[in-house]
């Protein structure tokens, strides 16, 4: 019976796609039947992902209508409707906006399409799109120049959700080599894998947790309070690209991020911006640092508390009890010089109260690898020997350390870290990450 239902569903979808493609082809435009068919399939793939669909370059609306018929999502269209490179060279105006709106209305999708009759650059400059708008799919068919596609990509990629798909048109067009070269450069820069479909003349890629690390030359900027006491970074975790890739891979499958030691909020803001669907909690006992963090972070998925670790964890238990049964990433960074560390208490509390967790500890001593700095103060050493007696003895843990030795941050020396993971089997890390960490099991309980 299940097989029969699957066959029926397949034919139903094929019928829906054929109807949508035929309907879209009634509109004026360049997208072929093959191109529309693939766009339909890709839109269907992202149907269950959070986020709207963005189209850059709509012309008379053939592909816009197709995307709207493929899903029930909201569609955003960015196009000045003046035409592309060919129109510009001829000094002509495409003037497609009126017919574009008529096609949306005729196909009964106008109520789901947000029209921005503008270039992407103008959308960015004039803040024409709300900051919280995110996408599950992006179709870029804008100005076919190197500069044009880079502007489109930079705008759209930052808003594309994890697992979202980005599609580029006319990749196989020989008359736009600079456009094609820029796409290739962007793929390499963000470690994106491009799928090429010659039949439809489309190429596309999927955003993964490995890709959210932006180019360091653009993101590792410092902003300082006039006094110079506090520094805020646009990137977290010391800018260590390997550590960030490991955390990004893990946090994409988690619901909560919990940090102790907010400081001025660089890491917290970085995580909150990259993962809008992850709720972030953090504590900072220093009043001045706490207030500065509040100024720097305006994301809706963040809660910061001006208190120490014990009060903070008690607060979570009293007011956010649902957190304790979910997948959680911890970033423990409430240790340094001049005070007694809460690290042992943190480890004991977490491993006894949370069913499962990924516990990252910053400034940690990496055994046998002296290139990594770590914290040590007044008999307190940030190391496994220091915390092991605080671990719940009834659990088995997977302990991960970094194995790389090259400099991974433009602005910070290597700092050691450790990942203590329990409540599930050993991580199935992708090949790109396997070589940068080592893992061993600690404890006696069989998973």
Please provide a written account of the structure:
There is one protein chain. The protein has 447 residues and is an alpha/beta fold. It folds into two domains: 2-207, Rossmann fold (3-Layer(aba) Sandwich), CATH 3.40.50.150; 216-442, Rossmann fold. Helix content is 35%, strand content 20%. Strands 12-11-10-13-14-18-17-19 form an eight-stranded mixed sheet, with helices on both faces. It has a seven-stranded mixed sheet with strand order 3-2-1-4-5-7-6, with helices on both faces. Helix 11 links the parallel strand 10 and strand 11. Helix 1 (2-25) runs antiparallel to helix 3 and helix 2 packs parallel to helix 3 (62-70). The longest helix is centred in the first third of the chain and has 24 residues, at 2-25. It is elongated, with a radius of gyration of 25 Å. Residues 213-229 have low confidence and may be disordered.
Helix-strand makeup class? alpha/beta
CATH arch. level architecture of the largest domain: 3-Layer(aba) Sandwich
The third-level CATH topology of the largest domain is Rossmann fold
Main sheet? 8 strands, mixed
Report the helical percentage: 25-40%
Please name the fourth-level CATH homologous superfamily of the largest domain. Vaccinia Virus protein VP39
Please tell me the overall pLDDT: 87
User: What number of structural domains do the residues give?
Assistant: 2
Order of adjacent strands in the largest pleated sheet: 12-11-10-13-14-18-17-19
